[in-house]
Amino acid sequence: MLAPAMVEKLNEQINLEFFSSNLYLQMSAWCEDKGYEGAAEFMLAHADEEMGHMRRLFTYVGEAGGLPLIGAIEAPDHEFESLKDLMAKTYQHEQLVTRKINELAHAAFTNQDYSTFNFLQWYVAEQHEEEKLFKGILDKIELVGAEAQGLYMIDKELAVLAKAE
Ligand code: OFO
Fold this sequence. Notes:
Elements: H1 4-33, H2 37-63, H3 83-110, H4 114-144, H5 148-164
The protein binds hydroxy diiron-OXO moiety.
Hydroxy diiron-OXO moiety binds near residues 50, 53 and 97.
């Protein structure tokens, strides 16, 4: 049975994962609007993945005897300076999510809630992958700079990555 304080923290994470999904969905619309079709597909696939993260938490809270709560979700940014700016923001956002997951894992451990601590290990591993993924894309964009041909190639690569998501 989850302690009320853990339910509250897990529900905050549910909200954050929802926000991540909305943020990436909104980013996919920006990419589409600017003609980055591969990036749009990639962000759309990633928005779906974030919904999966939300659902996994939602199910866990319910199964562990808590009540999953869906709160108000903040509107995401919809304006970006460039594809590089957008990807830099995804990377920053994933770093924030990692910090939140680490805080949650710490709270579970210090409350001797080993079941939740164990459940959260999936997220710890996932955040490692997500940071690696977005950092890798950002590094490539930084390498090509504002050069149109380079960005076109990256967009093509993102279309391939989207299929692998
Ligand atoms: Fe992108 O990992 Fe969930 O939020």
